[in-house]
Every structure is written in C-alpha cells, then in structure tokens.
Specification:
Keywords: DNA integration, DNA recombination, DNA-binding. With about 325 residues, the chain is mostly helical. It has helices at about 5-20, 25-40, 50-65, 70-90, 115-125, 130-140, 145-150, 205-215, 235-250, 255-270, 275-280, 285-305; strands at about 155-160, 165, 170-175, 185-190, 195-200. It folds into 2 domains: about 5-100, DNA polymerase, domain 1 (Orthogonal Bundle), CATH 1.10.150; about 115-165 and about 195-300, Intergrase catalytic core (hpI Integrase, Chain A, Orthogonal Bundle), CATH 1.10.443.
C-alpha cells in the first residue's frame, strides 16, 4: 500500500489507540513526548520517507544535545518504535531496524544524604508536627515516593501494627477538561502492581506519627495525612518546602534522595534483600540489586579494611 500520509497524522492514530489501553498518566507522557520531541523533527515527513538513516539521525541529535535524561530517551525510543510498528502493519511501510539505537541503561550515581544532612533533617522533623516533617520521615524511614506519601490517608496508617498501606499515588497531569486550570492533581493507581504494598515502620516513627495524630486532633480517617482534610496534597508543595528546609541548613538535595538513603541504609544494615525489594515496591529483586548492591560492597570494604595489617618480622 502506497500513501503520502503525513507522519504526524499516524502519530494521532496511534495515540487514540493507546488512549484505550493505557492509564491516563501514561497517555499524557506519550502525548508530551510526541508533541515536544518527535513532531518537531518529523513534521514534514510522510511515513514512506522515514528510514533507518533518518531514525539514527534523529536519536543522534537528541543524544548529542545532552539535555535529556536516560529515562526520557528510552520513552522516546519506545514511542517512536511503537508508532512505526503500527504504521508497518497498517500502511505496509518498510521495517525500521531499531537495533541501531543503543541507549545507555546506566542509572548514574544515586545521591543519598550525608550523615550530617540526615541529622539536621531529623532534628527539625522530630521537633515539628508539620506536613513537611511527617513527609520527610516517612520517606526516610519507609522509603515511600513523594506521590505515594501525598496519597496517604489516615486510614492507610495502622499504628497498632506499625504498618503503612501503599495503594495510590498523586500526580499533577494535564486537565482532561481543558478548563481554566491547565493541570490538575489526580489520585492514580501506582505504576506497577508491586508498588501496592504494606510497609513496616520502625517503632520511633510509629510513636512520632501517633503524637502527630494526637496533636492534630484528627476528625476523619478518610482525610489525607498531609492536609488533614479532603484536599489532595500537592507533591510540588512538599518538594518546594523540602528545598527551602535544605537551603536553611546549607545543602541541596532532591526529595527522592530520601528514598535512596532509606534503601542504602537498609542494605548497609543487612536487611534481607527480598524483603527490602518488596518494601520499596520493586517489581523484582534484580532491580533492588542493580540500584543498591554497590552500597553493600562499599560498606563491606570499609569494614574489612579495619583489619590491621600483619606485622612481618625481618628475620
């Protein structure tokens, strides 16, 4: 079948099909990738004009700019490959060989809090009953992501058994209604089924949350933890408050580093890796190993180097 159909029209068809089979958050991510990265490059192309060389050129341009994260590049690759596979089946275009597109899978260096930074945050949080305090402590001693913390309601916290149930996440996404607000906070299912989990918390954190609960005189268990109301907490607000608190203490780090700090300390304390993987909501233990096993090796190297060197006589 020969057609002079424009590539951007094929992307629209693909998006409409995807809308029926993926979560809204995934749909928005794919739409953003298409509008921001793919269409500007391929806008003037028909689907027959696209070949291996053009695809390689497109990705080379993206990579050479060094502006995009590994995650973004992998998403662009997935979307582009999927669109062209759709076009191949529907319009019989030539097969594009994506094996030429090799993207780095390295996770890079995960930043964690230094011991001094950790102490400074702990000192503030344990002395203040504020949303930012409880958010930081749940991330630092439960490993929850910021969206998962914002989605927590009081009914998700079982203080008798010392566990938190994670079943939702909060994301700010494009407003479906296209009204005055361009974006809207949405309560969503977690990214994967394994992200739905039960997380045990240490006794000292359970005691802090109990004191926080009593301090607020909570009325309704269906209220969100961070707002103590029906209002959905905004992850951006928590992130901004966290940044200000870090700046007040003369350091700068991302909120997600609290989760990395939690995982790294668990590894260093020799917490069972399968249990840790489940508490982090990873889909398999290999993900946990890939991200955090280096922490265990560095820790063990430091420990083993405490052994004194033997004294060798010169006889």
């Amino acid at each position: 079948m020969q057609t002079n159909k424009k590539f951007f029209l094929v992307t629209k068809e693909w998006l409409e099909l995807k809308k029926m089979s993926v979560k809204y958050s995934s749909y928005v991510k794919y739409e953003t990738v298409i509008l921001k990265h793919i269409i500007p490059f391929f806008d003037d192309y028909t689907i027959e004009q696209i070949n291996d060389d053009i695809i390689v050129s497109f990705f080379k341009e993206l990579i050479d700019t060094q502006k995009y994260s590994n995650s973004t590049l992998h998403t662009i690759r997935y979307v582009m490959k999927s669109i062209l596979e759709y076009a191949e089946k529907k319009y019989c275009i030539q097969t594009i060989n994506f094996s030429f597109i090799k993207l780095n899978r390295s996770k890079g260096n995960l930043r964690i809090l230094s011991e001094n930074q950790k102490i400074l945050l702990e000192k503030y949080c344990f002395n203040h009953y504020e949303p930012i305090s409880i958010a930081i402590l749940i991330a630092l001693y439960g490993g929850l992501r910021i969206g998962e913390i914002c989605a927590l309601k009081w009914e998700d916290v079982d203080l008798n058994n010392g566990i938190i149930t994670v079943s939702k996440t909060v994301e700010r996404l494009k407003n479906k209604e296209n009204m005055e607000s361009k974006t809207i906070l949405m309560i969503l299912e977690p990214k994967t089924q394994t992200s739905k989990r039960i997380v045990p918390i240490p006794v000292f954190l359970k005691e802090y949350i109990q004191n926080y609960y009593d301090y607020l005189t909570v009325i309704d268990s269906s209220y969100y933890l961070l707002t103590n109301s029906e209002k959905i907490p905004d992850p951006r607000t928590i992130q901004n408050q966290f940044q200000r608190l870090c700046q007040d203490n003369n350091f700068q780090i991302n909120f997600h580093s609290l989760r990395h700090t939690y995982a790294t300390h668990c590894v260093m304390q020799e917490v069972d890796l399968k249990s840790l993987s489940e508490m982090l909501g990873h889909s398999n233990i290999s993900t946990t190993l890939q991200l955090y096993v280096h922490s265990s090796i560095e820790f063990k190297m430091n420990q083993i180097n405490k052994i004194s060197a033997p004294v060798i006589s010169q006889n």
